[in-house]
Design a protein that fits this description.
The chain contains nine helices and two strands, in the order H-H-H-E-H-H-H-H-E-H-H. By secondary structure, the chain is mostly helical. A two-stranded antiparallel sheet has the order 1-2. The relative contact order is 0.14. The C terminus is likely disordered.
């Protein structure tokens, strides 16, 4: 490896140029122009899922090229070995977490079903969740977090990426500093620590996609934006508990539970000596949780 590529921030810049920039060009320019070519809703229900999956595959392929060209190593974080087990683990983890958040709200009358929209929205919701999770985990976990961690260590990387994630949510219309802080705390702790423990992106993508998919299918607002899934749900009551129009991820219930789980996993990572101190990154083998 050339000397200049030994610096994590140099490789981060290369990753942004090779992976992030093409993605944003595709997502913000080409995607919507392509979808605008189709005016028949029945065709769009077929085209959208295929388009979302294609974008996810393109981002993974670009990341694979980056790893091969600039880091010159095997793509260990996306090896097919035990892929099914990691995906199932992520699904079960997030499903359990979601149940612990949704069920109390439903029992308390804060979460009600307003309408059903039909099964045809499900493929679109699921593939959108897969695309969003894949893109965000590749950019935030595999590139941004991992390379910042290599430079300054795990703890500082968690803090910096959480802050960045919160600032990105703060850019959403109507979002307060409080809500942005909750979003940064919720996703900025648990997913990075899962990656620290396993060095496996399949787990992180699955956990992230399951959360998004359940929100989409149930019809819960996601990051302040409306969703259209199999059903349409309504959140009522104290917004500190439910997240209101911004979605459950902005609630004290979800953020508090995520913080407890994240801190416990961080303690496990510390006990396993999996935390990186900076400038001495090594690829940790995936371990059973």
């Amino acid at each position: 490896m050339p000397v200049f590529l030994r610096f994590p921030l140099v490789r981060l810049l290369a990753g942004i140029m090779l992976v992030a920039v093409p993605y944003f060009v595709i997502a913000t320019r080409l995607l919507y122009r392509f979808l605008d070519l189709f005016h028949n809703q029945s065709i769009l229900f077929l085209i959208r899922p295929l388009t979302y999956l294609t974008i996810a595959l393109v981002v993974v392929a670009l990341y694979g090229l980056y790893v091969g060209w600039f880091e010159r190593r095997t793509l260990t974080e996306l090896l097919p070995t035990n892929r099914g087990r990691w995906i199932m683990t992520g699904f079960l983890y997030t499903s359990s977490f979601t149940a612990l958040v949704f069920v109390p709200l439903w029992l308390n009358g804060n979460l009600t079903v307003a309408a059903t929209n039909g099964w045809r929205y499900i493929p679109q919701a699921l593939t959108l969740a897969v695309m969003a999770a894949t893109v965000e985990e590749v950019l935030f976990r595999a590139l941004l977090f991992r390379l910042i961690e290599e430079a300054v260590g795990s703890i500082w990387a968690i803090l910096l990426v959480s802050l960045l994630f919160g600032l990105m949510h703060y850019a959403n219309p109507g979002t307060t500093v409080w809500r942005a802080g909750l979003a940064g705390l919720e996703a900025g702790l648990t997913l990075p620590v899962l990656f620290i423990l396993t060095r496996n992106l399949w787990l992180c993508i699955s956990a992230h996609a399951t959360w998004d998919a359940l929100n989409y299918v149930i019809g819960i607002p996601e990051s302040g934006g409306p969703t259209q899934g199999y059903i349409t749900s309504v959140l009522t009551g104290d917004e500190r508990l439910t997240g209101g129009a911004f979605g459950i991820e902005f609630s004290l219930l979800a953020s508090g539970l995520a913080s407890i789980v994240g801190l416990y996993l961080l303690w496990v990572a510390y006990r396993r000596n999996a935390l990186v101190k900076g400038k001495r990154y090594r690829s940790f083998p995936a371990q059973p949780m």
